[in-house]
Amino acid sequence: MDNLNRTLLNKSQGTGTQMADSTTQTVGPNVVNLTPTDSTISLLNEPVTQPGDCKSSEVISTTNPPFSDTSSLYCPSINHSLTEEPIILSNELLFSQFSVEALIEELDFTHDIGNRKVVYFGTRPYAYNGGVHEPKDLEAHTYLAKVCNYLDIIIPNYDYNSVLVTLYANGNQFIPKHSDLEDCIEETSDIVTVSLGATRTLIITDSTSGQVIKELELKHGAVSVMTKTSQSVYKHEIIRDRECKRPRVSVTFRLIKPPIPPKQSGVYRKIMDDVKMSEISEVSSSKLGECSYTRIQELLQKYGTESRKAKAEDSSISAKASLHSIKESRPFEPVLSASLSTSLHSCSTSSSTTGSISVLPASFTPAPAPSILPISSRPPLSYSARITPRPRRTNSVSSPKIKYYEKGVQVNIMQKGVNDENTPPDTHAAYTTLKKQAQEMEARLKKANEILANENSTYKETEARLKKENEYLVEQVKKMQEQSSLKHFSSSSLVNDIKRKAQELEKENRYLANQVKKMQEEASIKSVFPAKENYISGSMGPVTIAGKNYDVWKKPVGKGASCVVYKAYDKARDSMVAIKVVSLQRLNPKSNDEMRREIELLNSLKDEDCIINLYDHEFKMEHCRLSMVLEYGEMDLHSYLQQTPCLVKSNSKQSYYEVCFLWQQMLRAVQCIHSYSIVHKDLKPQNFMKVKGKLKLIDFGISQMIQDEVTSMIIQQPEGTPNYIAPEMLSGTFGEADANVLGYRSDVYSLGCILYKMCFGVTPYQHVEKMQMKYFAIISKEEVPIPESLRYSDIADTLVMSLRKDRTKRATVAQLLAL
Ligand SMILES: O=C(O)CCC(=O)C(=O)O
Ligand SMILES: [Fe+2]
Fold it and tell me: Is the CB of 238 under 6 A from ligand 1?
């Protein structure tokens, strides 16, 4: 604690002495007159009374990240008294996330010293008892750079230019008792070690007495600080720990002096005298052009001669001069630097010196070293040049070279030349060529860069164009998708519509096909007909009516109160006919008159295809029989309705169409007779016959011709079938003589009843069993109710219009047809 206090005070007082050799050319940040920066001062606990007067304690806490309470700040020492003992700064928290394994992974330990391994990075060579380390860039060592960055935070103004990383693979590895007394370490240097990984023990002993002064635990993140000067007083060691299985890495920072030539020979001196700073800066000026090459050439010629001279003076001379880091403020920075070296080949019989030059424009060097310093404090990039005249071992080949780097790739240009022992190398010519080549190379590079820039802009243009095109296409695809989905939607609804219609048509078709089938069946009967057992012979015999023969089916197809209907084959017509045999015997004369009237009516309507055709008739009074040969129909409407579900029940479009179809035909048939001033008076399903699928009127038994509606006759008795009878036809019976007027609209009412039956399966008052009640219901002023189960409003309207009780308000057939 005391030591650090003292250190802080001493450093801040700025009383230290600059120990650097004047030949070191160290012109970095002021090491000696170190004054804490404002930010450092603000971090100190106690107020600073004078600039540079720092009275803080050993450990200075701050809450600023990345420090924790246990972190500390340290001002580098400046006093360097002999008795300054090592101290430890604890930085466990700062390094808590730091992986020592990752650090080991990224490092190549170049020296295996048996009990440990090391690797060195620094701008200057570092020689110690473990070996000699050549200068080496930190390059892209991410984790090591991180340690450097952390150290910059822990000791902000600490000046160092080397990093020695030591790996102790386990507790068996150690470093024996020693002092870091190497000459190459600056006397002003602090020796700072960051301990990472396993905890190990550092023991400090007094060099003279061997007495243990301190035993320090070096945990992960511990930073030990020693001074170079104290190395003559103390020794230190990392002792074995057999229990420890984990690795430990120590990262030791030092300030290394520029290398001292082994022998300060005349040649070296000459070189050193000759190569002045001005020349170096000339060589390394931002323009490595004419002047540099010329100068390099001059120098080589000069030192070639000098070395030959030196060889004559002292054959054992081996001189090496090196000028590094003319402006080295921090290690591993791309710095303005140049080196010039020449070595005389002592063993060679040849006195000649051949040379090679490497010209390394720093602008072509790989990416800058890892960020150890804040960007702002880095010196600007510039060229560096190294001139290396080397002895030629044989007389074979010399290799003047140009190296340059671009994007980390080294490009070598080699020029071979032959020198024999007696011929000094034609360095001038070599360098002229090299210069030319370098210029060419630079020109090519420039061109390549231009092309690249060009390509880059073309690429960018293309990229932008493609992006636009892509956007357009995406938009188009989107639109097309939308359209196609719309199309799909509309086409699917259309398809559904068509499907529905097709289904309806199919139903209709089936119905018609059925009808056709029936008709075909009828037609086929024709061929079957001549079979004897199927027609009448005997009592009715093969019947002759009005002189024509008919083959009559034995079984009657219909029976009435006074008539029987047979099916027969008319050979002359080659078609089926219906033969209606009416028994006149049992009829009164009035009935006979009716029969005659019917015959007349039918005869007058012969040409109408909505009226059943009367082909022939014959009164045989002797037999009291009227035989009528009529057009044959497959089935009357009554039978048809019996075997067909009503509209409400089937509730299908097909039934609807069929009802409409039949209704139209009934209307036409009735319109036809009305146009002959005939009122049918007994319209009911039984009186409509289906002939080849078409409805025709039959049975005019009670029909009569009328002049017009107003002269319509008064009837005495209710006639017609009660379920289809119009109210006006009944009302007369029940004393409402005025209303008992017969008219065309009575047929309309009956038609309405047939339509009602087709819709609901029953006639309006069919459910009323008692006849009298039925009559009352029919004549009642209350309109026939239309059940709501009928969903076809047009039919419902038609029913309402045709079933109006008041006949004057009832529709005529013409009106109904016009709907
Ligand atoms: O590993 C350590 O902590 C000490 C290393 C050391 O003393 C040295 O490299 O000189
Ligand atoms: Fe050491």
Answer: yes
C-alpha distances in Å from residue 477, one per residue of 186, 468, 474, 481, 785: 74, 14, 5, 6, 61
State which of 175, 204, 230 you would mutate to test the pocket of ligand 1, scoring each by most atoms of that ligand within 8 A of its C-beta.
175
What is the ipTM for the molecules in this complex? 0.99
pLDDT confidence band for 753 (50 / 70 / 90): very high
Phi-psi region of 530 (alpha: psi -120 to 50; beta: other; left: phi over 0): alpha
Distance 194 CA to ligand 1 centre (A): 10
Is the CB of 117 inside a 6 Å radius of any atom of ligand 1? no
The residue ranking higher by pLDDT, 728 or 85, is 728
Q: Is residue 361 helix, strand or coil?
A: coil
Check: pTM over 0.95? Answer yes or no.
Answer: no
- Could you tell me which of 176, 177, 173 has the C-alpha nearest to residue 211? 177
Q: In this structure, what DSSP letter does residue 423 have?
A: S
Contact 190, 225 (CB under 8 A): yes
Task: Return the residue whose CA atom lies nearest to atom 2 of ligand 1.
Answer: 250
Nearest residue to 536 (alpha-carbon basis) of 564, 562, 560: 564
The residue whose CA is least distant from atom 10 of ligand 1 is 180
**For ligand 1, is residue 254 a contact (CB within 6 Å)?**
no
What proportion of the chain, given as a percentage, has pLDDT over 90? Answer: 19
Distance CA 743, CA 733 (A): 16
Q: Which ligand 1 atom sits closest to the C-alpha of 166?
A: 1
Q: At what angle do helices 793-802 and 744-760 cross, to 10 degrees?
A: 140
In the chain, the N- to C-terminal Cα span, in Å, equals 120
Whether ligand 1 lies within 6 angstroms of the CB of 252 is answered as yes
pLDDT at 293: 46
Are 177 and 240 in contact by the 8 Å Cβ rule? The answer is no
Say what the pLDDT of residue 543 is. 78
Longest dimension (CA), the chain: 182
Atom of ligand 1 nearest to the CA of 218: 3
Ligand 1 contacts CB of residue 231 (under 6 A): no
Say what the pLDDT of residue 531 is.
38
**Cβ neighbour number for residue 205 with a 10 Å cutoff:** 16
Q: What is the CA radius of gyration of the chain?
A: 66
Structure tokens at 693: 């699928």
How far apart CA 219 and CA 164 sit, in angstroms, is 18
pLDDT in tens, 102-132: 999 999 998 888 889 999 998 888 877 666 7
Which tokens belong to 268? 């070296």
Which residue would you say has higher pLDDT here, 45 or 171? Answer: 171
Closest CA to 582 of 541, 552, 621: 621
Q: At how many degrees (to 10) do helices 744-760 and 653-675 cross?
A: 170
